Amino acid sequence: MKHFLTVNDIESLPDWVDEAITLKQNPYQFEDLGKHKTVCLLFFNNSLRTRLSTQKAAMNLGMEVMIMNFGNEGWILEYQDGAIMDQGTSEHIKEAAQVVSQYCDIVAIRAFPDLKDKAKDEAEEVLNGFAKYASVPVVNMESSTGHPLQALADAITLAEHNKKSRPKVVLSWAPHPKALPHAVANSFTQMMKLQDAEFIITHPKGYELNPNITKGCQIEYDQDKALKDADFVYVKNWSNYNDYGKVLNQDLNWTMTQQKLGQAKFMHCLPVRRNVVVEDAVLDGNQSLVINQAQNRTFSAQIVLKKILESL
Ligand SMILES: NCCC[C@H](NC(=O)CCC(=O)O)C(=O)O
Ligand SMILES: NC(=O)OP(=O)(O)O
C-alpha cells in the first residue's frame, strides 16, 4: 500500500477489522517491524485522540515518532502551482513535502477544511500536495473530506459490539454552535457501505451530505422514524454542505437523549459538546461506546502503519 488517504484504501474491511481485533490481544507482536523506521505526524489543526493513538500505534510497532504542529510552528505553505510568492506564504509544498520525506519513512497529515470554498476543500490541497510531492507514504489523520482512521476504528468497535447478522445502524445529525467538517460523516458513510447492515442517515432537510458519498444510502428526515429499533446510533454534527460551511440549524430537538436512544448503543468520534450534541445521561450511561471507539483508534492506526511498513 502506497498511501492511506481514504476509506477506499482499506483493501479488505472485514480482514483488517479481524486483524485489528487480533492485534489488540497482543499489541507488541510486531514490535520489531518498525525498528529504525520513523513516522512524522504533521498537525495543521488540533487533536487529542489522533495524535496520541497514532503515536501509541507507532510505538507498539517499534517506530520512532516525530510530531510537528504546523499550524503555529511551521512556515505557512504555498500550494498553488506557478505562484508568485510575494505574499504571506513562505515555502512551497513541493519543497516542504520532499524535505519532510528526508527525515521519515511515513508522513501523516491532519488538515481540516476552511469550510469557505467547497471546490478548494474538495481539492484536498494539503493532503494531496503531500501525496503528490512526498517520496514516502502519506497517511490521512483527518483531511477536508475524510477521516478514514476514525472510520476503521468505528468498524472495529461495531464488530466488537454487534450481536446481529444485519444490525440497524443510524447516522444522526446533531446541533453544534460551530461550523464543523463533513469528514467524519463522509468516512463513516463510506465505511458503512462496505458493511452488511441496515444503514440510515437522518438529518434536517437541507443538511444532505455530498450526494456522491451518500449515493445508494437511505435518508430519513424524521429522526424518530430513523431511530426506531436501531442497534447503533452514530451521532455527529456537520455544517451545511449545500449552503457550504454555514450553520443554518441549531435545533436542540436533534440532540441525542437517552429516551431517543432506546436500547441502541451510542457512538461519537469525540470531542463532543455535552448537552448540545448529546445529553449527559447518554455519555455517562452504559450504552455509550465512545471510549471504546477512542481505544480502537490505536489499533486502526496500528493496522494501517503495519500494512505500510510491510510494503516498504
Ligand atoms: N477529529 C474528530 C472531530 C474533529 C472536528 N470536530 C471539531 O472541530 C469540534 C470542535 C469543537 O467542538 O469546538 C470535526 O467535526 O471534524
Ligand atoms: N476523533 C478524533 O479524531 O479526535 P481528535 O480530533 O482529538 O484527534
Automatic annotation (TrEMBL):
Carbamoyl phosphate binds at residues 47-50, 75, 110, 147-150, 269-270, 297. Its EC number is 2.1.3.11. It comes from the Bacteria. Keywords: Amino-acid biosynthesis, Arginine biosynthesis, Transferase. Pathway: Amino-acid biosynthesis; L-arginine biosynthesis. Catalyzes the transfer of the carbamoyl group from carbamoyl phosphate to the delta-amino group of N(2)-succinyl-L-ornithine to produce N(2)-succinyl-L-citrulline. Is essential for arginine biosynthesis. HAMAP family: SOTCase. This is N-succinylornithine carbamoyltransferase. It comes from Flagellimonas iocasae. The gene is argF'.
